[in-house]
Amino acid sequence: MWMFGLMSALLLTGIPVPPASPADEIERKIAALLRQMTLEEKLGQLQMLDGDVDGSYRPDHLDLVRRGLVGAFLNVRGARRVNELQRIAVEESRLKIPLLFGFDVLHGYRTIFPVPLAEASSWDPEAVQRAASIAAAEARAAGVTWTFAPMVDIARDPRWGRIVEGSGEDPHLGSVMARARVRGFQGHDYSASDRVLACAKHFVGYGAAEGGRDYNTTDMSERTLREIYLPPFKAAVEAGVGTIMSAFNDLSGIPASANPFTLTTILRGEWKFDGVVLSDYTAIEELMAHGLAADGAEAARYALDAGVDMEMVSRLYSRHVPQLIKEGKLSMATLDEAVRRVLRIKFRLGLFERPYADEARERAVLLRPEHRAAAREMAARSIVLLKNEGHLLPLSKTVRTLAVIGPLADDQRNLLGPWSGDGRAEDVVAILSGITAKLGPTARVLHARGCEITDCSSREIAEAVRLARQAEVAIVVVGESAEMSGEAASRASLDLPGRQLELVKAIHATGTPTVVLLVNGRPLTIPWIAEHVPAILETWFAGTEAGHAIADVLFGDVNPGGKLPVTFPRSVGQIPIYYNHKRTGRPPNPTNKYTSKYLDEEVTPLFPFGYGLSYSQFQISHLQLSRQRIRPDESLTVSVEVENIGSRTGDEVVQLYICDVAASVTRPVRELKGFRRITLRPGEKGRITFTLGPEHLGFYDRQMQFIVEPGEFRIFVGTSSVGGLEASFEVVQ
Ligand code: GLC
């Protein structure tokens, strides 16, 4: 504001005044609008209302729009419908403030990419960014200006169904993927006709739900909050994310949607975030259920005062804020600041100049061949080869008889996964179709479901066994339904649902070489399969092009290079079993009873974080450090040589981990601090160099200050969170 005063003073002196910057121009327009707005119109900007799941709007909302009492909608989509509502706002309301249209576009709008956990398995941020940019282009063409993505919650408990929506258990990988998705969705300027406003969610700690039970309590130290759950949000803010969504969960006694420490002290104070905070769906109303707010008025006051600007679906702000202000329990300044933030992103989106969607553009952009091609490539890069005994894979394209079995072999709907935007089952290439297309008419491809995902009759298994006996190879496609992942989809067991394991065992017992394809949105406990089946591919929910992508990998047109972004436990009893755990005073020792382990289970996971095989083999050597000693504010480089010693071109993901050997606060056994996916031809060598600096080596000390402490650090460079080449260096005062 002082800028305007200064400029007018300068004008009087005749000194040439520099033209106002675009940002200052926006602030001037916001101030001018605010001065005209009634209290009801201000509250209207803080109200998001819901459309129907099919994308239509509720007729009774039209009048609210006309009276300027709504600022945004969620789920309303499609250029024509969006324009119908927008026209009322822009041409019939008093102040003509355009609406925002938000939608959950997490992994595609109409062209559906692999679920986010699958995309994270690619360890390829450039590919992930491209997927997000395509999703943005399709969404914006359909009138969606705001996506409720990326979901950046760290998830260490695979019982939590929403693990599928994020990038797994690690803060570094999660931060890299958060930046990639924000840049993909927003680009450099989200007013562009093929970009959307992004929304990092769910702020904060939602993934730490006790028992992996969705919406359950989270309780953690500030150090865990800052070192594990906040980093991907900070990365998103640093990448310029325009909005943040506040979460449902009780966060150490103060619900995340009413928590001034996270929403104001950290988000606004430390990170200087000037965007909008949107509540999750009725999360403000739920402050009463939490037992924080005695009534709706108190819920509204807690949330607005803590820093939640816009209310999703519940309507406590519009109902109670006028009286709260009248009673002096809320200040007009607080309200104005929230409205200012909402208007700011509407100006930054270019909605005042270009409020309408282009229906012709929508038809031209959705499901374009190049979008499908990108989805196919992303899906193939997301596949993780978990086992390949005897090099059973890749299969030969000259195979004459193949059996493709399982409840997810000829399925389209489930392959979209949860939160599949406007994706259509009929667009999906089923796995059976992808295989048939790959082999052409010469091969005999036999198919039987064998069982359903959750139940089946033994007759069906018998039919599947009969077909497997006729085949040279049996491919068994098992896993979860899309509804078993995502929101409100926590599972107390991570076993294959129904009688799918029985089906796998029956097919394996025929003696026909068996390949298992997993279709799932979370780690599954598959110890029998891991021990007995020679080849296993983790394909996740692979999206619209699933069948083609999986066939590309099965038959060797793509060499799989994915790595697990989350630990696979042997049994649910091992949870939590994330890799970056503390050492304890009694680390597990099989020869000493009195150490940290189980009587009835291993302490190691079934498959570790960062693990994944290839059809090639890679050798890492020549680990070099630029220095043996550095000061706390200095950096060093770590480099290794990678060689493809196999017979196929392939990718390896080289991973760098550190361990702070002794510190004033105990540190994890390992922490991922760098990774690079590299493609090498047979015999080709590459050199990869990482930089380690204070931002990698530091931690929050006993006074919660981020410091780098002198002492020994060990580093590990390898192809998973287990093993690798080791070295050490010292930080000296
Ligand atoms: C849901 C989810 C959130 C989503 C929102 C709108 O409850 O928690 O991730 O963006 O509502 O659909």
List keywords for this structure.
23 helices, 6-stranded mixed sheet, 5-stranded parallel sheet, 32% helix, binds alpha-D-glucopyranose, Immunoglobulin-like, 733 residues, globular, Rossmann fold, alpha/beta
Write a compact overview of the structure shown:
The chain is built from 23 helices and 26 strands. It is α/β, with parallel strands linked by helices and about 725 residues long. Among the domains are: about 1-35, no CATH class; about 380-575, Rossmann fold (3-Layer(aba) Sandwich); about 620-730, Immunoglobulins (Immunoglobulin-like), CATH 2.60.40.
Folded structure, characterized:
It contains 23 helices and 26 strands. By secondary structure, the chain is of the alpha/beta class. Strands 11-16-15-14-12-13 form a six-stranded mixed beta sheet, sandwiched between helices. Strands 4-3-2-1-10 form a five-stranded parallel beta sheet. Helix 18 links the parallel strand 12 (401-405) and strand 13 (444-448). The longest helix is centred in the N-terminal third of the chain and has 17 residues, at 125-141. It is globular and about 85 Å long. The two termini are 45 Å apart. The model has no long low-confidence stretch (mean pLDDT 97). The chain binds alpha-D-glucopyranose. Residues 74, 104, 148, 201, 280-281, 487 line the site of alpha-D-glucopyranose (GLC).
